[in-house]
Design brief:
six-stranded mixed β-sheet, Nuclear Transport Factor 2, Chain: A, 3 helices, single chain, alpha+beta, 146 residues
């Protein structure tokens, strides 16, 4: 594998991580679940010891989630390319949330934060299949107690 090919894989994996955060913030659950392999595994940072296995179960978990406003900020993304089809990544996350309906009627006022931001991290296993780069495994954990 050339250096250019490795850089392209790193970029694609970093983009997948950022796209995930943007789709979660937009509440586009079907698209979020589609970023996983059919047998992918997800563990939320707030429930690190409760992994969810399978794209259908991941989608169901997101659909069950109460409505909220959120903004995820991803940083310190480090991708280690293992092969043209496989990589591992680590990233840090900062999450701000607000309950839906916490903005004044008329939407001129911004939603009110639900509490302190959460700080966490992800360990990812990423693969390239027919549908492009996907999460084979995405395991989060909190770095500090809320």
């Amino acid at each position: 594998m050339t250096e250019q090919e490795e850089l392209q894989i790193e970029w694609a994996c970093s983009r997948l991580i950022s796209n995930y955060a943007n789709l979660v913030d937009a509440g586009r659950w079907e698209e979020v679940a589609a970023l996983y392999e059919a047998d992918g595994i997800m563990a939320r940072p707030s429930a690190a010891d409760q992994p969810i296995a399978g794209r259908a179960a991941i989608l169901a978990a997101f659909l069950e989630r109460p409505g909220r406003y959120s903004r995820h900020f991803c940083s310190n993304i480090i991708v280690e390319v293992e092969s043209p089809r496989s990589a591992r990544a680590q990233s840090r996350i900062l999450l701000f949330t607000a309950e839906q309906g916490s903005a004044a009627e008329g939407a001129a006022e911004l939603p009110r934060l639900s509490g302190a931001p959460l700080v966490g991290e992800y360990d990812d296993r990423l693969v390239r299949g027919e549908a492009g780069r996907r999460f084979a495994e995405r395991r989060g954990r909190l770095s500090f107690r809320p």
